Amino acid sequence: MTTTPLQTTPMRPAESNTRPRFTPPPGSCDAHFHVFEPGYPHVPAPLYTFPDGTLDKYLRLTEFLGIDRMVLVQPTFYGTDNTLTLEVLRRVGPQRCRAVVRVPEDVSDTELDRYHELGVRAIRLDLFARATLPTEEIIDYVRRTARLTRPRGWHLQFYTPGTIVRDLLPFLADFEEPFVVDHMGYMKESDGLTTADADRLLSLLRQGNCWIKLSGPYRIAKDKPLSSVRELGRALVATRADRLLWGSDWPHLPDGGRDTGELLDLLADWAPAEADRRRILVESADTLFFNDGPTHPRRVSLCQSNDSIGRRHGGLAS
User: Fold this and answer.
1) Residue 261 domain-assigned?
2) Tens digit of pLDDT for each residue in 96-137?
3) Beta strands of the chain (E only): which ranges?
4) Phi, psi (5° rounding) for residue 112?
5) Structural domain for 108, as ranges
6) What's the structural domain count of the chain?
7) Burial 129-153 (b: 16+ CB within 10 A, else e)
């Protein structure tokens, strides 16, 4: 069965984005963006047409919004071919840019070590592609991938439907590896997810080895306004601001015209305290991506309070 790819729309000029009501703190990080450049191999049947989301366009956006650092996330468009991701890391440099890759299960240690040297710090698990598998098979896949991340001090990133997040909650509550759930857990009412499911996700955030990415709120809102996600956004911040990252999800596939500044400005409402915005925009990125020292998440107690986390990560990582 052939699926018609989504038609991507042209990118919004950087200067046409909304300026947020707050000034991002120094070292602010966009923890989720994608880049597309012509000439790089892609999967045979992409889910969307080729976007014009080039690195140069993205860097102009970060300059406009005041974003100093960034994390490039391997998109489904390129599958497990990380050639472009590694080239972006070389061009931008590891002090500003880190990355999340997708890899085949038989990837070599030599290849992963090369990725680490260039700035890769996580593996992305595409559980949309495995959504029809039994939960136990998905868990086995997660555990196998953790064996790749563990020796390097990396973490796992879950790109997954909210229904799979829900089904994995009992397993993740005891999972000993650090992990990030993309797109606010994909808690979509249209998929049958309930307030009780969201509450269980908050419990995982409160007690487990979990970080959650404040990215893609429009994916949860779907046809509703972004304000419909306000309650979940505020609840996540109130639960553990020190375990949240902000991601633009640029170039907002397939809607290249979406206002990234409007998405950043949601933090003015969800996280009105400046200290919480710093935790979300700076300190979590320090911990997961830009900190290779003794305060890496695998080497600290994951049950410390927000205050102690803030004291430990008071400065930017080099």
Assistant:
1) yes
2) 999 999 999 999 999 999 999 999 999 999 999 999 999 999
3) 29-33, 69-73, 97-101, 120-126, 155-159, 179-181, 210-214, 244-246
4) -65, -40
5) 25-310
6) 1
7) eeeeeeeeebbeebeebbebbeebe
Q: At what angle do helices 162-173 and 135-149 cross, to 10 degrees?
A: 70
CATH number of the domain to which 62 belongs: 3.20.20.140
Contact of 119 with 99, CB cutoff 8 Å: yes
* pTM of the shown model: 0.91
**For residue 316, is it within any domain?**
no
* Residue 3, in any domain of the structure: no
Long-range contacts of 137-143 (CB under 8 A, 24+ apart): 138/164, 138/167, 138/168, 139/168, 139/171, 142/168, 142/171, 142/175
Q: What is the pLDDT of residues 183-211, one digit of tens each?
A: 999 998 888 889 999 999 999 999 879 99
Q: Where are the alpha helices (DSSP H) in 175-244?
A: 195-207, 217-221, 230-240
Whole-angstrom Cα distance, residue 156 to residue 133? 19
**Is residue 13 a part of any domain in this protein?**
no
